[in-house]
Amino acid sequence: MSIGPTTTWFIVARAVHFGACLLFFGMYAFDRVVLLASGRKDDEVGTNWTDGVGLFSLILLPVILISGIAWFLLVALTMSDGLLQWKVLKTVWSQTEFGAVWKLRLCLWFVAVAVTAFPQFAVRFKKMIWLPFFVSGALVASLAWAGHGQEDSRWHLGADVLHLLVAGFWPAGLLALALWLRIVRKGSGLHTNELTAAVVRRFSVMSLAGVALLAVTGFVDAWYLVGSFTNLFRDNYGRWLLVKVVLFVITIGFGAVNLLRLKPRLELPPLDAAAMAQLRRNIRAEICLTTFVIIVVAILGVLPPPGH
């Protein structure tokens, strides 16, 4: 497959859109499943964290919209032999499964804007605090219908949905953890130290479960798309999948250090500053590796799988 300008921009649009959607969900997944359950309080750290989530949402939502529009236009461009026409756009929007998926995702985007732009409703109605979590999760899960998974069985599609949602918790949730650790450095007191230990402990457990689920659902995906073990080495799609696996394994290595070496040190009072500094460095490395994984996923999306 030749990599022309259209394909290159297609990869860029997919990578940005995937990354923005995963980060958007990861912020709320971390806030609701990790931080809230660990005993978050409405102190200075909590207020700064809430403001940080709001700022990231303000950045990510326009990125999701613009990259999604770019993705749609590039799909229409490939269907019209490089000449973008209104008739083709209308056909893709109204008469294709891809258009139907993008209509649904656009509706989810508008709902996401509504529930994140008016946080006072979540304060007034406590049950609505989970709305951004579920809406951002639906936005991520719907990406499965824009990939290779929807071309096969429901088992494959279900595995893709689960794979995307778990990736929103880990590794996408690493950026949320990094942001929270940055904010908590400005705080002080026993409660802050106890909360830090509880958050790291809960995030480590979530990451461990995430690694297992990503491995299982990734294997299901490879089973349908690669076809045979030899295709991992002789096919372009298979080789890029191997790159993804290698990056994933390296990321797991950093996570293992965090879990086995740093987490026990952080649970002992007083808070170990050296361990915390090492944890922040490891998280930054994991975030960089995750960025490369997302780029590889975007490349895989434009390559024909040998299993098909």
In a few lines, what is going on in this structure?
By secondary structure, the chain is mainly α. It is 79% helix and 0% strand. The chain is globular and about 65 Å long.
Structural notes for this entry:
This protein is an all-alpha fold. It has one domain (about 5-300). It contains 12 helices and no strands. The model has no long low-confidence stretch (mean pLDDT about 85).
Biggest sheet descriptor: none
Annotation, overall tally of beta strands: 0
- What is the count of distinct domains? 1
Instruction: Tell me, briefly, the overall form.
Output: globular
- Tally the helices: what do you get? 12
Q: Note the beta-strand portion.
A: under 5%
C-alpha end-to-end distance = 15 Å
Fold topology:
Layout lengths: L4 H31 L8 H36 L6 H10 L1 H21 L1 H6 L6 H11 L12 H16 L3 H12 L5 H36 L5 H4 L1 H31 L6 H30 L6
Helix pairs in contact: 1-2, 1-6, 1-7, 1-8, 1-12, 2-4, 2-8, 3-4, 4-6, 7-9, 8-12, 9-11, 11-12
Overview features:
globular, mainly alpha, 12 helices, 308 residues
